[in-house]
Amino acid sequence: MKLVVKIKSLPELLALVALGIFLTVSILNVTFYARYIPGTVYKLAIAFSIFLLFVKEMFKRKYDYRALIGLFATILIYFIVGEMTALGSEVPVSILFIYALRDVPFKKVAQTSLVVSTCLLFFIIVSAKVGIITNYIEVSESRVRSYLGFRYALFPSMLLMDIVAIVFYLKQNKIQYWKWLLLSLSVYWVYDQTDSRLTFFSSCILLACSLLMKWFPELLSKLGYVFKAFKLTFIVNAIISFWVSFTYLNSGYSFINDLLFKVNHMLGGRLYLANKSLNLYGFGLLGRPVEWYGNGLTVEGVRNYQTYYLYVDNLYVQVLQRFGLLILGLMLSVLTLTLSKIIKKRQWVLALILILMSFHSMIDDLNFYLHNNIFWILVGALIYPDYQFSDESNEELGGHSFEKIV
Question: What is the pTM of this model?
Fold first, then answer.
């Protein structure tokens, strides 16, 4: 596959190189290659990517009021979230990338992410299959799951889902059948290896929408009024998540309890675990210390069997407990405003992807991380009034360009 990323300026190049570095170390950090990467190297790579963003911003001669307000809010949120995790961890650093990439066409951001994610996913899976790194096999009574070189079975399937979404956005209604078939076979093969059912279903929805759009190019635009009905989807899904988690088997109505019990069983106990975590740790205006123990492995491939399993997969509930009501409210607000702007700009594919993201967040928290969900960068549209969802306008400009060919 040949992918050309035309870069029109040095600041743009610096931003995309920084993004590439950040995505690379973030992905490798959740694989068994992490055991060969010293913590100092990881921190230096993150610091270098932030430095490149800083240099890129130095090329800006002036800031309007939106940029200044956005900069102040970004720094404030960065330190608030960093205080609860670590300033060099992925979540707070991702906030810096959202701000710094606000004036880079999203098409170029998506292309860069596609190159990095596809190459690394292929490299890691091959490394695991030939024995260079561990290919952990989880065997339970009903499931056999291969981790494919990652430290949890959901990681490769979530990364592939992001790749499918990016290709859908980039190709729109022009995807070739062989590429669609290749993606479909890849999604099924990863599902067969990892048995990651919910992520598989979400990927299938994206693939089905991609095929429908190829057959009926005007389909999404004709459904514009439907998209408008989903403008508040992040807020609505968050409210539903809280209500379900708080009232699980305690609603006072037997038919609701029976229904939630069946849904909990279908979702692998997710409702029970969210309810248990809320009862155990509660939530506050700011984040609280929580101790969750999931199925993820250490870099040595060891699982902690000394404690009981407790993990919240619902992103809305997780953010509420980890970061507090203030950060959750801010997250829901910016996502809602971003989706509204995308719908206003008639970017139907992006709108569909964000809406699917809002529902997927009810069952999986992994799209919280930038390397699993590059579409977080779209929040920059709220800061930069001339935000470009593609680089078509830039292609009309003269001047020199850098080209990255894969």
Answer: 0.90
- State the DSSP code for 137: E
Give first-to-last CA distance, the chain, whole Å: 7
**Number of other residues whose CB lies within 10 A of the CB of residue 128:** 23
Phi, psi of 55 (to 5 degrees): -60, -40
What residue type is assigned to position 234 of the chain? F
Q: How many CB atoms are closer than 10 A to CB 291? A: 9
Kind of pairing between the strands at 144-146 and 402-405: unpaired
CA triple 240-245-246, angle to 5 deg: 105
176, 167 Cβ separation under 8 angstroms: no
Q: What Å distances lie between residue 340 and 24, 110, 162, CA to CA?
A: 31, 20, 22
Query: Nearest-CA neighbor of 277 among 262, 295, 289?
Result: 289
For tokens 């997927």, name the residue. 360
DSSP secondary structure string, 236-247? HHHHHHHHHHHH
Query: How far is it, in rounded angstroms, from Cα 374 to Cα 112?
Result: 10
Alpha-carbon gap, residue 91 to 370, rounded angstroms:
8
Give dist(CA 289, CA 292) in Å, integer. Answer: 10
Of 103, 97, 96, 91, the C-alpha closest to 66 is 103
Q: Which are the contacts of 51, defined by CB distance < 8 A and separation ≥ 6?
A: none
Round to whole Å and give the CA distance between 113 and 106.
Answer: 10
Are the C-beta atoms of 294 and 285 separated by less than 8 Å?
A: no
Query: Distance (Å, rounded) from C-alpha 54 to C-alpha 374?
Result: 20
Q: What is the DSSP string of 20-31?
A: HHHHHHHHHTTB
Beta bridge partners of 138: 145
Give Cα separations from 400 to 10, 105, 150, 361 (angstroms).
10, 17, 40, 41
DSSP state letter for 213: H
Q: How far apart are CA 249 and CA 257, in angstroms?
A: 5
Element containing residue 266 per DSSP (H, E): helix 254-266
* Average pLDDT for runs of 10 along the chain of length 406: 62 93 94 89 93 88 76 86 80 92 92 96 95 87 86 93 96 92 96 91 94 90 86 95 87 77 85 89 84 74 67 92 91 94 92 94 91 93 82 39 40
Which pair of structure tokens corresponds to residue 312? 């919240």
